[in-house]
Fold:
Amino acid sequence: MARWTEADIPSQAGRSAVVTGTGGLGLETALALARAGASVIVAGRSAEKGAAAVARIERAAPAGSVRFESLDLASLHSIAAFAERLRAQQDGLDVLINNAGVMVPPQRRETADGFELQLGTNHLGHFALTAQVLPLLRSGRDARVVSLSSVAARQGAIAFDDLNAQASYNPMRVYSQSKLACLMFALELQRRSQASGWGVTSIAAHPGVARTDLLHNAPGRRSVMGVTRSLLWFLFQPAAQGALPTLFAATSPDAEPGGYYGPDRLSETRGYPAPARIPPRALDTAAAARLWDMSETLAGVRFP
Structure:
């Protein structure tokens, strides 16, 4: 695959997109989509960060269309309210980028609904969001859902007997589980869309190792991971580079339904978009179906 960059994004004029997350990868993804002509909603918890993201995008893409909407992926009530507002505002949705995430908080924390924070935000929140806006996606034009996984998914395993890490909490193990769940969801969503005729394409992506604030926000700047992120910043590729696999998955006519894309160099930690290696556990269709059923029950949503 040739070096695919933002310049290769086809025109997104007339297309609508929702990107979860107001900083880092989400901000860069929303900015690139706005530059390409999409009408973009940046969705996140903080109105202050959302306003800052919108202001930056408007400065960099003055001809673009962007707005902020409040969405807390750690609250099923907030997700339902966001989806209800969106359904009232527009008749369809063309692109959903399930991007926002929480990474390795040192102590176990819970969402508003009692789920372990990483699983609840990274996987269950986006699972519920996708279910809630599926009618809009089915009315969209060549609609795509892009779900963000991570190189950490390679070490992930779904602990079906302790999904919410109540018996044992290890920050990285639980993060890896959540990102494996995101990948399994993306692959299963494509299988179900194809089988049921939803007309929605599902693709997964990961950013490699990108220079974002994930490690500063959760473990903290003084943690080992936070200090590594601060002092060895040059090991992390820029967020705009890390966003390229997501943008490829969201816009390129060459992106395959049910595909998985990441950087092409140094064990997929940096570089340009290319097909990523899918961990064997993510290909277990029986486990994916079991996770789907559990996720519907936990999140209180049903796909058609």
Observations:
- The radius of gyration is 18 Å.
- Residues 12-297 form a domain with the Rossmann fold fold (CATH 3.40.50.720).
- Strands lie at 16-20, 39-44, 65-70, 95-98, 144-148, 201-205, 210-211, 237-238, 260-265, 270-275.
- The chain has one domain: 12-297.
